[in-house]
Recover the amino acids of this structure.
């Protein structure tokens, strides 16, 4: 299970403020804490470049510089603006990098596809078309097909792609949990070398007991074939579950990593 | 008759659309909101009483429970959907009696943003509160929103954006309305995870709504003013 730490995101109010005020210490600490907690990648989302920033790209470049000075973990560069992604990748140091994200919009695939191919970057692809989030598995697969075909034109390999099956709040439509799980299964069937990734917290929007809802859905998704998750690595119960899910889905030979983590006291039972 | 209205209100609070619906607490039996609304019409209870004393009074309690975190999103949606169905039943009667809706509310998720869940929740609550709601959709270009305001003259325009990037479009829309000389023709309300009271003031919106219940409260306060 690949863990992408979600905390450095401008839409979290305290983080947005830190980026606006250029509070490097706050942000580098957040990077170190997440790396220490076991995040494999650190997501960085710098927002729209409000306040002191001339634009979103400048804010992102600054953020990447400071986060990279604080941790050697690779970053997941999070923006829906191709111009920001381009600038960010220029600023970025290191081989391994994840781009978050593209969807089935041709123009974006045509801009980001060649960059991802050239960089060998991992690429998060939301199985979403223009006009919103499809409510059915079939439409989401159509979006995945469109994305993969378009990316192949530019030489992006299947194993670079992390499909996000999309998670909608169960509180609003109780059919959507299964739609997400089926989408994971079908994508893994159709594109065996591609990976799947999803954010966890959306599923529990509007409900009480969000922690247990998120954790349970995470386990169901792992059973369906989930490879990666964008989550809060500072949530120790969730990180315990990451270890457990690796063991239960035959990714932890001899249960070594689970037992080792338990001995270290990092598993909450 | 009052007893029927009281039951209607209780069933709204329990989010019981129909008689076979177990409701939020699984305590009520008998007809649900849809059946009780039809019965009220048969008994010639005034439309005003059905709406004000039954449906709206029920939704007010739901709003209080939601704010107190006693109710969650699915509870609130169950009640709102029940009330929305009741309004559909009442609509032809309201039109025949020449009782207009409280005003037309156009709601839209701005260009670049495809999030519709919050928008849909607000829309259903406003519909249940007696407003005529027109949903313009998601990812709607600014010029289409301006054209709509020019042609259809809605009383209220609700703008939704979830992202820190797309919330900036709300300011563009307000500027575009000014340029088109339409700003004074419509009240602009904004909502969404990224926006705030302060942001509403910055871009010159008429109000920020933290949730759908607040939207209803603010709109009703305009009508009383």
């Amino acid at each position: 299970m690949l863990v992408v730490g979600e905390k450095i995101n401008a839409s979290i109010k305290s983080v947005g403020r830190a980026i606006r005020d250029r509070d490097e210490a706050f942000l580098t600490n957040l990077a170190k804490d997440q790396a220490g907690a076991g995040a494999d990648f650190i997501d960085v989302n710098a927002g729209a470049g409000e306040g002191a920033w001339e634009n979103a790209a400048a804010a992102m470049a600054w953020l990447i510089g400071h986060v990279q000075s604080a941790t050697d973990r690779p970053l997941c560069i999070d923006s829906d603006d191709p111009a920001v992604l381009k600038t960010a990748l220029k600023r970025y140091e290191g081989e391994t990098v994840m781009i978050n994200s593209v969807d089935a919009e041709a123009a974006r695939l045509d801009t980001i596809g060649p960059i991802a191919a050239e960089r060998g970057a991992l690429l998060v692809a939301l199985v979403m078309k223009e006009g919103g989030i499809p409510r059915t598995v079939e439409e989401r697969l159509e979006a995945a097909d469109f994305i993969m075909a378009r990316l192949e034109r530019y030489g992006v390999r299947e194993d670079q792609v992390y499909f996000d099956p999309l998670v909608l709040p169960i509180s609003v439509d109780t059919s959507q949990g299964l739609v997400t799980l089926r989408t994971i299964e079908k994508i893994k069937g159709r594109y065996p070398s591609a990976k799947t990734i999803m954010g966890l917290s959306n599923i529990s929007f509007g409900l009480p007991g969000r922690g247990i809802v998120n954790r349970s859905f995470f386990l169901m998704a792992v059973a369906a074939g989930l490879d990666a998750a964008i989550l809060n690595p500072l949530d120790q119960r969730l990180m315990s579950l990451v270890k457990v899910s690796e063991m239960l889905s035959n990714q932890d030979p001899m249960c070594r990593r689970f037992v080792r983590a338990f001995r270290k006291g990092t598993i909450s039972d | 008759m009052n007893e029927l209205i009281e039951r209607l209100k209780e069933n709204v609070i329990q989010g019981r659309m129909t008689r076979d619906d177990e409701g939020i607490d699984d305590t009520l039996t008998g007809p649900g909101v849809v059946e009780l609304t039809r019965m009220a019409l048969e008994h010639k209870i005034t439309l005003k009483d059905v709406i004000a004393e039954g449906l709206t009074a029920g939704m007010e309690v739901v709003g209080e429970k939601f704010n107190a975190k006693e109710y969650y999103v699915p509870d609130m949606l169950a009640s709102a959907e029940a009330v929305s169905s009741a309004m559909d039943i009442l609509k032809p009667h309201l039109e025949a009696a020449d009782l207009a809706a409280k005003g037309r509310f156009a709601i839209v998720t701005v260009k670049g943003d495809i999030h519709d869940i919050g928008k849909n929740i607000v829309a259903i609550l406003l519909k249940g509160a007696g407003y005529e709601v027109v949903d313009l959709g998601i990812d709607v270009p600014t010029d289409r929103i301006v054209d709509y305001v020019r042609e259809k003259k809605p009383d209220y325009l609700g703008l939704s954006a979830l992202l820190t990037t797309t919330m900036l479009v709300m300011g563009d829309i307000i500027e575009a309305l000014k340029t088109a000389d339409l700003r004074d023709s419509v009240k602009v309300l904004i909502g969404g995870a990224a926006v705030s009271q302060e942001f509403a003031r910055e871009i010159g919106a008429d109000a920020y709504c933290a949730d759908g219940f607040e939207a209803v409260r603010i709109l009703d306060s305009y009508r009383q003013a």
Chain A has a mean pLDDT of 94.
